[in-house]
């Protein structure tokens, strides 16, 4: 190799590039009902519950739509846009404390999230006792590619202390069966 060949540090060049006008914000789905399909299910460690786990369900949009923008500018989100929702797989600290103090049921039951998911997938009425008895124990892999309707909101992300960060994100507030939407 020739001694004349000198390799330049590619990172050093970044210090000379003006990036002040580069938009790195993510487009957001508008707050509305969106048809989505369940694309992937993963079990991931919980950030809030040491030693706990969450089911991370990744949904993909079925249809393209206009993007939510704060300034009213035009934007488009194509089909297959990803949304993530975390489903805790254990009681949170408050629920455990309530149970330890003799409560029959905690005010928050993590299984309610899975029951709502089952209702949406199986087209069950959560207010009908007969339908509630039809909720099957399900293999998460059976949910892949199932289409549901997600009620999507636009909300401000929070930091670990609960304070707003000024960054907007999409949240799935509820799910329903496509025929019900």
Layout of strands and helices, then pairs:
Elements: H1 10-14, E1 32-45, E2 53-61, E3 65-66, E4 76-77, E5 82-88, H2 93-100, H3 111-122, H4 129-132, E6 147-158, E7 164-176
Antiparallel strand pairs: 1-2, 1-6, 2-5, 3-4, 6-7
Provide a quick synopsis of the model.
The protein has 4 helices and 7 strands. The protein has 181 residues and is an alpha+beta fold.
Explain how this protein is built.
- The protein has 181 residues and is an alpha+beta fold.
- The protein is 16% helix and 33% strand.
- The chain is built from four helices and seven strands; from the N terminus they run αβββββαααββ.
Task: Tag the structure with descriptive keywords.
alpha+beta, about 35% strand, single chain, five-stranded antiparallel sheet, about 180 residues, about 15% helix, 7 strands, two-stranded antiparallel ribbon, 4 helices
